[in-house]
Amino acid sequence: MTNFPPRRNCRVLFFAFAVLLILPVAAARAQAFRDGQSAPVAVQLEGDLTGFRKEDAAQYLSAAMNGAGVAGWNFQVASGAAAADRVVWMVQLDPYAGGGVRTFFPIPGQQKLFGPHRQISVELRLYLAGQYQAAVFGQAVIQGGAQDKELGAFIARLSQGLLGVQGAYRAGDTVPDAAAKPAH
To answer: For 89-118, what is each residue's pLDDT tens digit?
Structure first.
């Protein structure tokens, strides 16, 4: 049997004790969210969202998520450090150039007709009690700003895809809903 130094034994015991305390709390918190007993969930943004200042984008995202029709969730702008219960929007602006033909957008004539549109790639992650739960991915071509209907629809689709009844977060449920049970 290997003899560990006393300091190492204390670290191992502390780590095991911390895991035993954190896992049941995270599981209970996740089940409470599944049952519709949600506390506020912080909305964080990593990257830039076209048409918004950094400080205004998270406010827009939280308002759009609250209006997306996802029952039982309350989204608020994150303040300060990473909240234990949060959704993280990781937005990447895709380059203008692409495809088989080397055309660089925006072409001035197209910009006058359609406005300056950008393609974005987004990963939306959910953390509950500090533990990663689920993620969804999406791409959209948006103009940006609060009046952009494509952006609003895209946010609603991703929110539903992550947190809706058929969303990625609920897909991990192993216990079927009472409403889904067949009547005998």
So the answer is: 999 988 765 545 555 555 554 444 445 678
Kindly tell me if the per-residue pLDDT of 4 is higher than 90. Answer: no
Burial-class residue 63 by CB neighbours within 10 Å (0-12, 13-18, 19+).
middle
C-alpha angle 77-127-175 in degrees, rounded to nearest 5: 125
The C-alpha atoms of residue 20 and residue 14 are separated, in whole angstroms, by 10
Does 63 score more than 90 pLDDT? Answer: yes
Indicate if the pLDDT at residue 150 is higher than 80: yes
- Rounded to 5°, the CA angle 135-24-72 comes to 50
Instruction: Please give the pLDDT value at position 182.
Output: 45
Q: Taking the CA of residue 4 as centre, how many other CA atoms within 13 Å lie in the half-sphere pointing to its CB?
A: 8
Q: Where are the domains of the chain?
A: 7-171
Contacts of 32 (CB under 8 A, 6+ apart): 38
Question: Is the CB of residue 43 less than 8 Å from the CB of residue 58?
Answer: yes
> Does the pTM exceed 0.70?
no
